Protein backbone atom coordinates (compact mmCIF):
# COMPACT_ATOMS: atom_id res chain seq x y z
CA UNK A 1 0.00 0.00 0.00
CA UNK A 2 2.89 2.38 0.77
CA UNK A 3 3.99 2.10 -2.84
CA UNK A 4 0.91 4.14 -3.75
CA UNK A 5 2.65 7.13 -2.18
CA UNK A 6 4.53 7.37 -5.48
CA UNK A 7 1.29 8.56 -7.08
CA UNK A 8 1.38 11.80 -5.09
CA UNK A 9 3.16 14.94 -6.34
CA UNK A 10 6.80 15.14 -5.30
CA UNK A 11 6.29 18.34 -3.27
CA UNK A 12 3.42 16.71 -1.41
CA UNK A 13 5.52 13.64 -0.66
CA UNK A 14 8.33 15.79 0.67
CA UNK A 15 5.97 17.57 3.05
CA UNK A 16 3.57 14.81 4.13
CA UNK A 17 5.10 11.55 2.89
CA UNK A 18 6.81 10.63 6.15
CA UNK A 19 3.78 10.96 8.42
CA UNK A 20 1.42 9.69 5.71
CA UNK A 21 3.48 6.50 5.43
CA UNK A 22 3.30 6.07 9.20
CA UNK A 23 -0.48 6.37 9.02
CA UNK A 24 -0.67 3.85 6.18
CA UNK A 25 1.37 1.38 8.22
CA UNK A 26 -1.32 1.54 10.91
CA UNK A 27 -4.14 0.72 8.46
CA UNK A 28 -5.10 -2.82 7.42
CA UNK A 29 -4.90 -3.07 3.60
CA UNK A 30 -8.27 -3.08 1.87
CA UNK A 31 -9.76 -2.13 -1.51
CA UNK A 32 -11.42 0.88 0.13
CA UNK A 33 -8.08 2.03 1.53
CA UNK A 34 -6.41 1.72 -1.88
CA UNK A 35 -9.24 3.66 -3.55
CA UNK A 36 -8.97 6.39 -0.93
CA UNK A 37 -5.23 6.73 -1.43
CA UNK A 38 -5.53 6.81 -5.23
CA UNK A 39 -8.32 9.41 -5.08
CA UNK A 40 -6.24 11.43 -2.63
CA UNK A 41 -3.33 11.37 -5.09
CA UNK A 42 -5.57 12.53 -7.94
CA UNK A 43 -6.91 15.28 -5.69
CA UNK A 44 -3.37 16.37 -4.81
CA UNK A 45 -2.52 16.61 -8.52
CA UNK A 46 -5.72 18.49 -9.40
CA UNK A 47 -5.37 20.95 -6.53
CA UNK A 48 -1.70 21.18 -5.56
CA UNK A 49 -1.86 21.53 -1.79
CA UNK A 50 1.83 22.11 -1.24
CA UNK A 51 3.65 25.01 -2.91
CA UNK A 52 6.98 24.36 -4.59
CA UNK A 53 10.00 26.25 -3.29
CA UNK A 54 12.39 28.14 -5.54
CA UNK A 55 12.81 31.42 -7.36
CA UNK A 56 12.27 30.57 -11.05
CA UNK A 57 8.75 29.22 -11.55
CA UNK A 58 9.26 28.25 -15.21
CA UNK A 59 12.49 26.33 -14.66
CA UNK A 60 11.06 24.71 -11.54
CA UNK A 61 7.93 23.68 -13.40
CA UNK A 62 9.90 22.22 -16.32
CA UNK A 63 12.11 20.27 -13.94
CA UNK A 64 9.05 19.05 -12.06
CA UNK A 65 7.42 17.87 -15.29
CA UNK A 66 10.53 15.95 -16.35
CA UNK A 67 11.20 14.41 -12.94
CA UNK A 68 7.60 13.51 -12.28
CA UNK A 69 7.44 11.99 -15.74
CA UNK A 70 10.33 9.75 -14.85
CA UNK A 71 8.78 8.79 -11.52
CA UNK A 72 5.19 8.79 -10.38
CA UNK A 73 3.67 10.03 -13.63
CA UNK A 74 5.61 7.59 -15.75
CA UNK A 75 2.71 5.18 -15.93
CA UNK A 76 0.30 7.85 -17.10
CA UNK A 77 2.72 9.23 -19.65
CA UNK A 78 3.51 5.77 -20.96
CA UNK A 79 -0.19 5.12 -21.47
CA UNK A 80 -0.78 8.53 -23.03
CA UNK A 81 2.09 8.17 -25.50
CA UNK A 82 2.45 4.47 -26.16
CA UNK A 83 -1.18 3.47 -26.44
CA UNK A 84 -1.96 5.90 -29.30
CA UNK A 85 1.21 4.79 -31.09
CA UNK A 86 0.32 1.14 -30.55
CA UNK A 87 -3.14 1.74 -31.94
CA UNK A 88 -1.70 3.46 -34.99
CA UNK A 89 0.73 0.60 -35.64
CA UNK A 90 -2.09 -1.89 -35.22
CA UNK A 91 -4.17 -0.01 -37.77
CA UNK A 92 -1.42 -0.34 -40.38
CA UNK A 93 -0.32 -3.87 -39.56
CA UNK A 94 -3.78 -5.43 -39.78
CA UNK A 95 -5.66 -3.25 -42.26
CA UNK A 96 -7.90 -6.16 -43.26
CA UNK A 97 -9.32 -6.27 -39.79
CA UNK A 98 -8.98 -2.63 -38.88
CA UNK A 99 -9.65 -0.66 -42.02
CA UNK A 100 -10.35 2.79 -40.68
CA UNK A 101 -7.33 4.32 -39.01
CA UNK A 102 -9.38 7.38 -38.13
CA UNK A 103 -11.13 5.38 -35.45
CA UNK A 104 -7.77 4.77 -33.87
CA UNK A 105 -6.81 8.40 -34.23
CA UNK A 106 -9.94 9.28 -32.31
CA UNK A 107 -9.14 6.70 -29.66
CA UNK A 108 -5.65 8.14 -29.40
CA UNK A 109 -7.07 11.59 -28.80
CA UNK A 110 -9.49 10.34 -26.16
CA UNK A 111 -6.68 8.49 -24.44
CA UNK A 112 -4.48 11.55 -24.48
CA UNK A 113 -7.33 13.63 -23.08
CA UNK A 114 -7.99 11.20 -20.24
CA UNK A 115 -4.28 11.21 -19.46
CA UNK A 116 -4.24 15.00 -19.55
CA UNK A 117 -7.07 15.25 -17.06
CA UNK A 118 -5.21 12.98 -14.67
CA UNK A 119 -1.68 14.24 -15.10
CA UNK A 120 -2.01 18.00 -15.30
CA UNK A 121 -2.78 21.14 -17.24
CA UNK A 122 0.50 21.05 -19.12
CA UNK A 123 -0.42 17.74 -20.68
CA UNK A 124 -3.46 19.04 -22.57
CA UNK A 125 -1.54 21.09 -25.17
CA UNK A 126 1.26 18.52 -25.26
CA UNK A 127 -1.17 15.70 -25.93
CA UNK A 128 -2.63 17.80 -28.75
CA UNK A 129 0.82 18.00 -30.32
CA UNK A 130 1.18 14.24 -29.95
CA UNK A 131 -2.31 13.13 -30.86
CA UNK A 132 -3.04 15.37 -33.84
CA UNK A 133 -0.17 14.13 -36.07
CA UNK A 134 -1.14 10.59 -35.10
CA UNK A 135 -4.65 11.33 -36.25
CA UNK A 136 -3.40 12.72 -39.57
CA UNK A 137 -1.12 9.73 -40.06
CA UNK A 138 -3.97 7.42 -39.22
CA UNK A 139 -5.84 8.97 -42.13
CA UNK A 140 -2.97 7.90 -44.36
CA UNK A 141 -1.60 11.44 -44.55
CA UNK A 142 -4.15 12.22 -47.21
CA UNK A 143 -5.31 15.75 -46.53
CA UNK A 144 -5.61 16.88 -50.14
CA UNK A 145 -9.32 16.34 -50.58
CA UNK A 146 -11.53 19.20 -49.34
CA UNK A 147 -13.60 16.78 -47.28
CA UNK A 148 -10.48 15.50 -45.54
CA UNK A 149 -9.32 19.02 -44.77
CA UNK A 150 -12.74 19.96 -43.40
CA UNK A 151 -12.93 16.79 -41.32
CA UNK A 152 -9.44 17.28 -39.92
CA UNK A 153 -10.14 20.93 -39.12
CA UNK A 154 -13.31 19.96 -37.29
CA UNK A 155 -11.39 17.36 -35.31
CA UNK A 156 -8.72 19.91 -34.39
CA UNK A 157 -11.30 22.47 -33.27
CA UNK A 158 -13.19 19.82 -31.33
CA UNK A 159 -10.00 18.70 -29.67
CA UNK A 160 -9.08 22.24 -28.69
CA UNK A 161 -12.58 22.68 -27.20
CA UNK A 162 -12.27 19.44 -25.27
CA UNK A 163 -8.88 20.57 -23.91
CA UNK A 164 -10.39 23.82 -22.68
CA UNK A 165 -13.34 22.01 -21.09
CA UNK A 166 -10.91 19.63 -19.37
CA UNK A 167 -8.88 22.50 -17.94
CA UNK A 168 -12.12 24.20 -16.86
CA UNK A 169 -13.31 21.08 -15.07
CA UNK A 170 -9.96 20.84 -13.30
CA UNK A 171 -10.18 24.42 -12.10
CA UNK A 172 -13.74 23.84 -10.83
CA UNK A 173 -12.71 20.70 -8.98
CA UNK A 174 -9.75 22.51 -7.45
CA UNK A 175 -12.06 25.18 -6.07
CA UNK A 176 -14.87 22.92 -4.96
CA UNK A 177 -13.92 21.46 -1.59
CA UNK A 178 -12.40 24.43 0.15
CA UNK A 179 -12.70 27.90 -1.31
CA UNK A 180 -9.46 29.78 -0.94
CA UNK A 181 -8.83 33.40 -1.61
CA UNK A 182 -5.43 34.99 -2.10
CA UNK A 183 -4.82 38.17 -0.28
CA UNK A 184 -1.62 40.16 -0.44
CA UNK A 185 -0.40 41.40 2.92
CA UNK B 1 3.62 37.51 1.42
CA UNK B 2 0.51 35.75 0.16
CA UNK B 3 -1.99 34.70 2.78
CA UNK B 4 -4.70 32.28 1.83
CA UNK B 5 -7.95 32.71 3.63
CA UNK B 6 -10.97 30.47 3.92
CA UNK B 7 -14.27 32.23 4.10
CA UNK B 8 -16.60 31.15 6.93
CA UNK B 9 -19.20 28.72 5.65
CA UNK B 10 -16.89 27.36 2.99
CA UNK B 11 -15.24 24.55 4.90
CA UNK B 12 -15.69 21.08 3.44
CA UNK B 13 -17.27 18.46 5.67
CA UNK B 14 -13.94 16.73 6.18
CA UNK B 15 -12.23 20.01 7.05
CA UNK B 16 -14.97 20.81 9.54
CA UNK B 17 -14.60 17.39 11.20
CA UNK B 18 -10.84 17.86 11.49
CA UNK B 19 -11.23 21.29 13.06
CA UNK B 20 -13.79 19.92 15.51
CA UNK B 21 -11.40 17.11 16.39
CA UNK B 22 -8.50 19.51 16.94
CA UNK B 23 -10.69 21.78 19.04
CA UNK B 24 -10.33 19.07 21.69
CA UNK B 25 -6.54 19.34 21.60
CA UNK B 26 -3.63 18.59 19.26
CA UNK B 27 -3.76 15.24 17.46
CA UNK B 28 -1.83 13.35 14.82
CA UNK B 29 -3.51 11.77 11.80
CA UNK B 30 -4.40 8.41 13.32
CA UNK B 31 -5.81 10.01 16.48
CA UNK B 32 -7.89 12.34 14.30
CA UNK B 33 -9.37 9.39 12.39
CA UNK B 34 -10.33 7.67 15.63
CA UNK B 35 -11.73 10.83 17.22
CA UNK B 36 -13.75 11.77 14.13
CA UNK B 37 -15.15 8.23 13.92
CA UNK B 38 -16.22 8.44 17.58
CA UNK B 39 -17.79 11.87 17.16
CA UNK B 40 -19.46 11.55 13.77
CA UNK B 41 -19.52 7.86 12.94
CA UNK B 42 -17.49 8.59 9.80
CA UNK B 43 -14.12 6.95 9.32
CA UNK B 44 -11.98 9.11 7.05
CA UNK B 45 -9.45 7.36 4.84
CA UNK B 46 -5.80 8.50 4.95
CA UNK B 47 -6.01 10.09 1.49
CA UNK B 48 -9.14 12.02 2.37
CA UNK B 49 -7.73 13.04 5.75
CA UNK B 50 -4.43 14.33 4.45
CA UNK B 51 -6.03 16.14 1.53
CA UNK B 52 -8.08 18.12 4.03
CA UNK B 53 -5.12 18.55 6.42
CA UNK B 54 -2.98 19.94 3.60
CA UNK B 55 -5.68 22.45 2.61
CA UNK B 56 -6.25 23.53 6.20
CA UNK B 57 -2.53 23.98 6.76
CA UNK B 58 -2.21 25.92 3.51
CA UNK B 59 -5.00 28.17 4.74
CA UNK B 60 -3.21 28.56 8.10
CA UNK B 61 -6.20 27.20 10.02
CA UNK B 62 -4.10 24.42 11.55
CA UNK B 63 -0.37 24.09 12.17
CA UNK B 64 2.01 21.19 12.79
CA UNK B 65 3.76 20.67 16.10
CA UNK B 66 7.08 18.94 16.79
CA UNK B 67 7.17 15.36 15.43
CA UNK B 68 6.51 12.51 17.83
CA UNK B 69 8.44 9.55 16.43
CA UNK B 70 6.99 9.17 12.90
CA UNK B 71 3.84 11.14 13.62
CA UNK B 72 3.25 14.88 13.49
CA UNK B 73 0.49 16.32 15.69
CA UNK B 74 -1.52 19.32 14.49
CA UNK B 75 -3.33 21.99 16.42
CA UNK B 76 -5.84 24.71 15.70
CA UNK B 77 -4.52 28.18 15.01
CA UNK B 78 -6.34 31.27 16.24
CA UNK B 79 -7.73 31.75 12.74
CA UNK B 80 -8.82 28.12 12.69
CA UNK B 81 -10.68 28.47 15.97
CA UNK B 82 -12.36 31.65 14.67
CA UNK B 83 -13.45 29.98 11.44
CA UNK B 84 -14.68 26.90 13.26
CA UNK B 85 -16.71 29.01 15.64
CA UNK B 86 -18.28 30.95 12.76
CA UNK B 87 -19.05 27.75 10.87
CA UNK B 88 -20.62 26.01 13.86
CA UNK B 89 -22.69 29.06 14.74
CA UNK B 90 -24.05 29.11 11.20
CA UNK B 91 -24.84 25.40 11.33
CA UNK B 92 -26.57 25.84 14.69
CA UNK B 93 -28.86 28.51 13.22
CA UNK B 94 -29.66 26.29 10.25
CA UNK B 95 -30.31 23.28 12.48
CA UNK B 96 -32.53 25.28 14.84
CA UNK B 97 -34.56 26.66 11.94
CA UNK B 98 -34.93 23.26 10.35
CA UNK B 99 -36.00 21.57 13.58
CA UNK B 100 -38.46 24.37 14.35
CA UNK B 101 -40.04 24.07 10.91
CA UNK B 102 -40.27 20.30 11.22
CA UNK B 103 -42.02 20.66 14.57
CA UNK B 104 -44.57 23.08 13.10
CA UNK B 105 -47.60 21.14 11.81
Q: Give the overall form of chain A.
A: extended
Provide the helix percentage of chain B: 55-70%
- Class based on secondary structure composition and strand pairing of chain B: mainly alpha
Secondary-structure element order of chain B, as H and E?
EHHHEEH
The overall pLDDT of chain A, averaged over residues, is: 63
Low-confidence stretches of chain B are 1-5
Note the total helix count of chain B.
4
Quaternary status of these chains?
heterodimer
Question: Order of strands across the biggest sheet of chain B?
Answer: 2-3
CA-to-CA gap between the ends of chain A? Answer: 42 Å
Q: Biggest β-sheet of chain A: count, sense, barrel? A: none
Task: Sum up the overall morphology of chain B in one term.
Answer: elongated
Give me the Rg of chain A, rounded.
20 Å
In helices, the fraction of residues of chain A equals: over 70%
Query: Number of DSSP helices of chain A?
Result: 7
Distance between the termini of chain B: 55 Å
Beta percentage of chain B is 5-15%
In brief, what are we looking at here?
The complex is a heterodimer of chains A (185) and B (105). Chain A has 185 residues and is an all-alpha fold.
Describe this structure in words.
The complex is a heterodimer of chains A (185) and B (105). The longest helix of chain A has 31 residues, at 146-176. Chain A is extended and about 50 Å long. Helices cover 71% and strands 3% of the residues of chain A. Residues 176-185 of chain A have low confidence and may be disordered. Chain A is mostly helical and 185 residues long. In chain A, helix 5 runs parallel beside helix 7 (146-176) and helix 6 (123-138) packs antiparallel against helix 7 (146-176). Chain A has helices at residues 10-25, 31-46, 57-70, 74-93, 101-119, 123-138, 146-176; one strand at 180-184. Chain B is built from four helices and three strands, in the order βαααββα. Chain B has a two-stranded antiparallel sheet with strand order 2-3. The model of chain B is unreliable at 1-5 (pLDDT under 50). Chain B is mainly α and 105 residues long. In chain B, helix 1 (13-23) crosses helix 2 (29-40) and helix 1 crosses helix 4 (78-103). Chain B starts with a strand and ends with a helix. In chain B, 35% of the residues are buried. The chains are: A mainly alpha (185), B mainly alpha (105). The A-B interface holds A 12, 15-16, 18-24, 26-27, 32-33, 35-41, 43-44, 47, 49-51, 177-185 and B 1-7, 10-12, 14-15, 28-30, 33, 45-56, 58-59, 67, 69-72. Strand 1 of chain A pairs antiparallel with strand 1 of chain B.
Amino acid sequence: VRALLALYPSAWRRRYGFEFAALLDAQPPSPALICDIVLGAIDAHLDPQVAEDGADPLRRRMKEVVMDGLRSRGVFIAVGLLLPVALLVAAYLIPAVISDGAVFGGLAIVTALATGLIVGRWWAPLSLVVAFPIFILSKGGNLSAPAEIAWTTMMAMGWAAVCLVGVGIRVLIARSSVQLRDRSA
Amino acid sequence: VAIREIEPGELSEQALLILVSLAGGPKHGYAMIQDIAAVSGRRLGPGTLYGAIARLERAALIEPLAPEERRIPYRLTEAGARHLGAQLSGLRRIAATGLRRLATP
